[in-house]
């Protein structure tokens, strides 16, 4: 009896410690899951809900998406207008570093996406998306596939880190493209050969030194072209046919002359030309402005005179040397 009792006690002790070990393991798992939940800002079941801050947009905040993250259990709102993050308000709780193909496939019903100031770096584009505002990120790669019928019309990539924009070739429906404040240094306008619906192109505040064209380029709807705050020393528009261009801004570059033959030929309906803060040669600038006046084109200054370095000579308030 004593032996039997002793064996029972031993078995009870073994089961007790096994149970305690299991409890400790489960506790560690619970703590780990809790920490993961905190890190990723997700709720039980990983169902993301729309915030009540906006009326027509589904705003999602307080979550994180990083590379190689399994999103198979996540449930995203089926909404035509999604907004990741709370921009322009400060939001330190939302990070969407990448939108991979897995996530892009799950967002097919979304036609408009706002994803500003969430540290986005790369993104796979889906065909149904029509408007994308991904400004104020670390964005450097928009992934497209040739042969897909992309419907993207409005694209804002300002304040990012793009050095190349080859993706433009796959976006024939583009109407507006904003690439202000990126890292572009050279650009081939031949990329826009298929973008015949484009009416506004903003390339300001980059580092563009050269713009080239492989043969004639016809953009029949382009009305506004913004090239100010770059490093252009030559603007060769001899192959451009921008018959509807009304506004051209080349302020704050390094230009010395502008060919009036190209203005007549490439921009026949030009109305406003911003020219200040370049390195214009005075004799050529004087002749150019006289011809612009004859064509009814306004030669304008884009920046306040106080912002411009002092110069000894100017024509129509435009500095020359």
From TrEMBL:
Keywords: Leucine-rich repeat, Repeat. Pfam families: LRR_1, LRR_8. Transmembrane segments: none annotated. It comes from the Eukaryota. SUPFAM superfamilies: L domain-like. PANTHER family: IG(IMMUNOGLOBULIN) AND LRR(LEUCINE RICH REPEAT) DOMAINS, LEUCINE RICH REPEAT CONTAINING 53. This is Leucine rich immune protein (Coil-less).
């Amino acid at each position: 009896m004593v032996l039997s009792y002793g064996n029972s006690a031993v078995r009870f002790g073994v089961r007790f410690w096994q149970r305690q070990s299991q409890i400790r393991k489960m506790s560690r798992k619970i703590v780990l899951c809790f920490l993961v939940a905190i890190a990723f800002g997700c709720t039980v079941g990983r169902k993301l809900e729309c915030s009540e801050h906006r009326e027509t947009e589904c705003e999602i905040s307080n979550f994180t998406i990083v590379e190689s993250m399994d999103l198979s259990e996540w449930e995203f709102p089926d909404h035509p207008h999604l907004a990741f993050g709370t921009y322009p308000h400060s939001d330190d709780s939302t990070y969407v570093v990448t939108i991979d193909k897995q996530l892009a496939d799950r967002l097919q019903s979304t036609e408009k996406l706002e994803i500003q100031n969430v540290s986005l770096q790369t993104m796979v584009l889906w065909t149904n998306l029509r408007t994308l505002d991904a400004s104020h990120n670390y964005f450097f790669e928009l992934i497209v596939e040739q042969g897909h019928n992309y419907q993207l019309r409005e694209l804002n990539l300002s304040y990012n880190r793009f050095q190349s924009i080859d993706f433009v070739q796959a976006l024939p429906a583009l109407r507006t493209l904003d690439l202000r404040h990126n890292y572009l240094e050279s650009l081939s306008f031949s990329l826009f050969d298929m973008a015949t619906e484009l009416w506004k192109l903003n390339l300001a505040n980059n580092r563009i030194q050269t713009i080239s064209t492989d043969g004639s380029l016809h953009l029949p709807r382009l009305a506004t072209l913004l090239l100010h705050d770059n490093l252009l020393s030559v603007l060769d528009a001899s192959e451009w046919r921008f018959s509807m261009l009304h506004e051209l801004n080349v302020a704050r570059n390094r230009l010395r002359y502008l060919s009036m033959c190209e203005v007549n030929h490439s921009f026949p309906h030009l109305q406003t030309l911003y020219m200040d803060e370049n390195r214009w040669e005075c004799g050529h600038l004087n002749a150019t402005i006289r011809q612009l006046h004859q064509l009814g084109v306004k030669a304008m200054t884009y920046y306040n005179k106080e912002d411009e370095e002092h110069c000894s000579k100017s024509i129509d308030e435009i500095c020359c040397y």
